[in-house]
Design goal:
The protein has 31 helices and 6 strands. By secondary structure, the protein is mainly α. The radius of gyration is 32 Å and the shape is elongated.
């Protein structure tokens, strides 16, 4: 048997392809034809440019397919061939299955290419029509006559040929979906099956992408594609397989269908999930580079495409159909650690997976948008995973990459910044986390370039980055929602601030100072008459300025409460903060009589007054004091200080609550990530439901 190599340039003139999209019906049992069609080494498009090039060469063939297939039913024949080969794969040994895997992959690649074309140029109903199309009676009769008499000229489908009404019941489509799921969950991933798994995942993504190309934004519960995929009985095993693919992060093999060793091909579903990766892991590409963000996304897509696409498919499945029962969503939120006993924890367990592997992988790739989003879903919705993360002794491995995303905010999209902050807020809801971050010491953080710090706690660098994010937001984004999340995270942590680095203490007080100056300027602008010389932004109305002032006062109040919470609960452990407050006491001067702040400032004044009087007495005895001597006086005074003299305020405890109609935020975001970082490249000109600025 000869093996042919397909060259994209030759596709438009390929006789076998021309016959497939032509006017003659090809029966599914025409082995000679299908062997000729499927014995090709397909060069996969690696980027959007490759896809554009392939699309342009296939355009004429695809147009012929659209015109003729509803009469010939050749697409249905190809789907049947794929279903037969997929079924046969389950009973073959490795050596027997190698050729089968190759042909099954080729069949699926052609199917996916045609699905993509129909999605981009037609409608969902047309897609289902092509799946269910049967050859017309004339063509079937012609095919029989041709078999009886080789000299007989086949009757071809014409534009005028009568078409029987086509009933789209979705039966073949449903069988096709089941076959894709079986390929993903039953067949173990080996070197020669890797691309078949990848193609199966890509085909599911391409089918669900019908959402992108709908002329009018129809609800997904009205979509037959979505309804079929979401009524799948195997949600748990599919989500388990996909999360395994992500957690294990096996690198793409150097050859698409390499040689395989002898042995049983399928071990049964339970064993295959435990033994799902049987070939040797190569050198970890991501560990050899220090890439983050967009650069890391490209490396992840290139070297770990199965993990990348599985992650994107999980996000699609869990973020659509949130208003009704979503078995995929329930499955992800109900999974448990394979190292726990089944009875541990509350609620039903959907599937078990090694949480350590999931955690380690997320630590490595959390600067990628889609990984941050998966981490958010697991922390927010899976109580078992949240508890597992809180018990980890190396939290810096997870937190530092998130802080790097925030530190590099100008290079990140606003959605990624939001999700990173929300993850920090969710983490800060745990008191154990808030205590532990101040016990983990970091040395020489090279990516933090604002100031050289030889040693700082994880809690200290976290505070610095969140403060920096607030200040960046004030200058650039001016987003109240972002401010709220930043301050809520700081507030949750404030009662546990300990051993704050001098620079961290300075930045905390400087945050108030910066906001106070802004408040003073804005207040002055509002009080000045319209014709005054005060510089007012002419595009800002007095109503907008009043709203800005109101937001600013809320933020100032929260910063004061954060300082107060630290002084109330941790004063003895934060001498550097007391030192900074003594040094910068004048910044509170203009706010002591302000009705919105005076009650909190009274507490800060009481602390400042107590330590100020002690310093004055010591100075009278010793003369001018140095920094270390001042800190010594503060430490001694702290041991005699009682927080009972301070006015009591409620503990600062904030919990993240998802906004109403979260799908309005998450669905466009997920599809943006699919288009930007996925291995399937869609025509951005055809996309209807994601705005062009994020559709890439």
């Amino acid at each position: 048997m000869g093996i042919n190599v397909s060259r994209n340039a030759d596709l438009a003139s390929n006789e076998t392809l021309l016959r497939f999209v032509g006017r003659q019906h090809i029966a599914h049992d025409d082995e000679a034809f299908w062997n000729g069609l499927l014995n090709y080494n397909i060069v996969m498009p690696e980027n959007s440019q490759d896809q554009l090039s392939l699309d342009s060469r296939l355009e004429t063939l695809c147009q012929s397919f659209i015109v003729n297939n509803l009469k010939t039913g050749n697409f249905g024949s190809l789907v049947t061939v794929f279903l037969e080969k997929a079924t046969e794969l389950l009973s073959l040994s490795d050596q027997e299955s190698n050729m089968h895997v190759w042909q099954t992959f080729n069949a699926l690649f052609i199917i996916r290419t045609l699905i993509k074309y129909i999605n981009e140029t037609g409608s969902e109903f047309q897609l289902l029509q092509h799946f269910e199309a049967m050859p017309s009676a004339e063509l079937l009769k012609a095919a029989e006559e041709q078999q009886q008499d080789s000299a007989t000229i086949a009757i071809e489908a014409t534009e005028q040929a009568a078409l029987a009404p086509l009933i789209v019941d979705g039966a073949k489509f449903e069988t096709f979906i089941d076959a894709l799921v079986n390929l993903i969950v039953v067949i173990p991933v080996k070197e020669f099956t890797y691309h078949l798994h990848l193609e199966s995942v890509n085909t599911l993504i391409t089918l669900l992408a019908v959402h992108l190309f709908a002329q009018q934004q129809q609800p997904t519960d009205k979509s037959i594609v979505f309804r079929t995929i979401y009524k799948c009985q195997h949600a748990n095993v599919l989500m388990s397989a996909l999360l395994h693919f992500v957690a294990r992060m096996v690198e793409v093999p150097h050859t698409m269908f390499g040689s395989s060793s002898a042995g049983s091909f399928v071990f049964g579903i339970a064993e295959s999930l435990l033994s799902i990766f049987t070939f040797r892991k190569q050198q970890d590409v991501l560990k050899t580079t220090s890439a983050t963000g967009g650069e890391l996304s490209q490396q992840f897509r290139t070297h770990y495409p199965l993990a990348n696409q599985s992650l994107l498919l999980m996000l699609i499945l869990t973020n659509h159909c949130t208003a009704q029962d979503n078995a995929y969503r329930t499955s992800l939120f109900g999974c448990a650690d394979s190292k726990d006993s089944p009875k541990q924890g509350s609620g039903a367990v959907s599937f078990q997976i090694d949480f350590s592997a999931v955690y380690e992988t997320l630590c490595r790739i959390v600067t990628i948008d889609q990984a941050t989003l998966l981490l958010y879903l697991l922390l927010h919705r899976n109580e078992r995973f949240y508890r597992f993360v809180m018990q980890q002794q190396d939290l810096e491995q997870l937190v530092i990459p998130i802080l790097q995303t925030l530190y590099n905010a100008p290079d990140s999209n606003s959605h990624h910044i939001y999700m990173s902050l929300i993850v920090l807020l969710i983490l800060s809801e745990d008191e154990g986390f808030n205590k532990n971050v101040h016990t983990i010491l970091l040395k020489n953080i090279q990516w933090y370039t604002e100031r050289t710090i030889s040693e700082i706690s994880l809690g200290g660098i976290l505070i610095l980055i969140v403060i920096r994010t607030i200040q960046y937001n004030m200058l650039k984004m001016r987003d109240k929602y972002l401010h709220t999340n930043c301050l809520a995270a700081l507030a949750n942590m404030s009662g546990h601030f300990r051993s704050l680095h001098p620079y961290v203490a300075q930045r905390l007080v400087s945050l108030f100072e910066t906001l106070a100056r802004k408040h003073t300027r804005l207040d002055a602008q509002l009080k000045e008459p319209a014709d005054s010389a005060v510089f007012v932004n002419v595009s800002t109305s007095p109503e907008d300025m009043m709203q800005d002032l109101s937001v600013l006062e809320e933020v100032l109040r929260m910063v004061l409460e954060i300082l107060n919470s630290c002084l109330t609960n941790q004063l003895v452990y934060c001498p550097n903060l007391v030192y900074t407050l003594l040094y910068k006491r004048s910044v509170f001067e203009g706010f002591r009589s302000h009705h919105a702040f005076q009650d909190v400032i009274q507490n800060i004044d009481m602390v400042v007054g107590f330590f100020s009087s002690r310093l004055q007495r010591v100075q009278e005895q010793r003369g001018e004091l140095g920094v270390n001597e001042v800190l010594e006086v503060i430490s001694k005074g702290a041991s005699q200080w009682s927080s009972d003299r301070l006015r009591k305020f409620p503990d600062l405890k904030f919990k993240y609550v998802e906004e109403d109609a979260p799908e309005e935020f998450f669905i466009p975001y997920v599809w943006t990530l699919v288009c930007k970082y996925g291995c399937v490249h869609f025509s951005s000109e055809s996309i209807k439901s994601v705005t062009t600025d994020i559709a890439c």
